[in-house]
Amino acid sequence: MVVGWATAPPPRGRRARDPQRGSVLLETAIAIPLLIAVALALAWALSLGSTAMGLADAARHAAREIARGVPAADAVAAAQGAAPGAVIRVVAEGSMVTVVAETTVTAPVPVLRDLAVPLRQSVTMPAEWM
Q1: Measured between alpha carbons, how far is 43 from 125 in angstroms, rounded to an integer?
Q2: What share of the chain in percent tops pLDDT 90?
Q3: Is the pLDDT of residue 5 over 70?
Q4: Which one of 22, 78, 94, 118 is separated from 67 by 20 to 30 angstroms, measured CA to CA?
């Protein structure tokens, strides 16, 4: 007895061919590496911002100390302790003291080690001891 126009289910052991089958797995396989790449890019951006702020703080502190009369070598040593790996330069022109802090930040992924971003912070203050 046939009721309505329903079709019979496929025989046991055989499934109907679904064109969408496996698409979720494929989409996930593509999405996960992309999400990881975006997360690494955001982490690197935060690292760049943090390093730039550290350079600015080290340069500001060194410029302030030199402007107050502390020897430049002592102020540069303190700045290099605050920003390890940075190159600190002091330029004194007249009554102004300029401290420049520079470093290079490389990518956190070994594949992109050749990708480096140079950071430079400069602070100028009037000398208080003149």
Answers
A1: 33
A2: 52
A3: no
A4: 118
Give the domain ranges of the chain: 52-130
For the chain, where are the E strands, in sequence order?
87-93, 96-106, 116-126
- Taking only the tens place, the pLDDT of each residue in 50-91 is 999 999 999 999 999 999 989 999 999 999 999 999 999 999
- Residue 87 and residue 39 in contact, taking contact as beta carbons nearer than 8 Å: no
Helix (H) or strand (E) holding 26: helix 23-68
CA distance 117 to 46: 13
62's CB contacts (< 8 A; 6+ apart) are 75, 76, 78, 79, 88, 90, 99, 101, 123
Q: Please state, as a whole number, how many other Cβ atoms lie within 10 Å of the Cβ of residue 127.
A: 16
Local structure of residue 70 (DSSP, 8 states): -
Looking at residue 20, its pLDDT comes to 72
Confidence of residue 130 (pLDDT cuts 50, 70, 90): low
